[in-house]
Amino acid sequence: MATGPQTPQETEDPEKPKGRTGRNLPAAIGVGVVLGGLVVLTLLTVKATFLLYMGIALAIALAELTSALAKRDINIPAIPVAVGGAAVVICAYWLGPRGALAAFGLTVIAVVAWRLTGGASGYVKDTTAGVFAAAYIPFPAAFVALMLVPADGPRRVLTFIIVTICSDIGGYFAGITVGRHPMAPAISPKKTWEGFAGSAVACLIAGWLCVTLLLHGHWWQGLLTGAAVVLAATTGDLVESMIKRDLDIKDMGTLLPGHGGVLERLDSLLVAAPVVWLLLTVFIPAG
């Protein structure tokens, strides 16, 4: 019996079949298959189509974050963040890291300048949120564009996505089967140490297989990549959970049945992207 009002994180829809983690599993699997299929299709055909697909996902995620922050009277200067974010990703692909960094710097300037017309009240709050949004969503996504540039870019990006997604898959199934000990109850009550162990095992196996089979690297490079990804992906998941707790919302959006919003699917990927780019650049330099 409940002893107090439920928070948004605790509220459930009794009409939808859900597992212990609160997901509508059949819907989640179906959506995951569709999203993954689009990734493979775009990566293995024309690389530019993957950039377009990624850009659409980033735009939706930014809209979700903007809407969520607005409920707390935090108004992101959405236009300069969106335009600047697109420029960051495009410059990363066509001009490289220096171009992406320059575009990000100009985005920050555009954000603080754009908000000048809105008056002094809330200026620091809104511009800080705008810079955070640019740094949280499009800037790390630029590292995915950097991974895509070389001739083997599609395989690099596919490696990054597979290994990172395995963190969620391994954590989910280990969590619902043997999860008992909460990992960070104040941030994400359903995340357990057993689930983290499942994520680690899945990422290590995926890293080993993907780096050796897709990129022809050494087994130890694959294991190190998998280990780094599980730490980054878990951090990304916890960061997004903390944001939702601070804003007192259950999900960032409702676009993806069984998943929530698009940002729920990107949280781990965004944090892992710079990590994987750096490791693959060091381990397997582009020819």
Describe this structure in words.
The termini are far apart. The chain is built from 10 helices and 2 strands; from the N terminus they run αααααααββααα. Helix 2 runs antiparallel to helix 6, helix 3 runs parallel beside helix 5 and helix 9 packs antiparallel against helix 10. A hairpin with a 3-residue loop joins strand 1 and strand 2. The N terminus is likely disordered. With 287 residues, the chain is an all-alpha fold.
Give the overall average pLDDT.
Answer: 88
H-E string: HHHHHHHEEHHH
User: What percent of residues are in strands?
Assistant: under 5%
Q: CA-to-CA gap between the ends?
A: 62 Å
Number of strands: 2
Global Rg: 19 Å
Output the strand order for the largest sheet. 1-2
Number of discrete helical segments: 10
Structural class by secondary-structure content: mainly alpha
| Helix coverage percent | over 70%
Largest sheet: 2 strands, antiparallel
Low-confidence stretches: 1-19
Question: What is the 3D form?
Answer: globular
Question: Which key terms come to mind for this protein?
Answer:
globular; 10 helices; disordered N terminus; single chain; mainly alpha; 70% helix
Question: Which secondary structure elements does this structure contain, and how are they paired or packed?
Answer:
Blueprint: H1 25-43, H2 47-70, H3 78-95, H4 97-114, H5 123-136, H6 138-148, H7 153-178, E1 182-184, E2 188-192, H8 193-213, H9 219-247, H10 262-283
Antiparallel strand pairs: 1-2
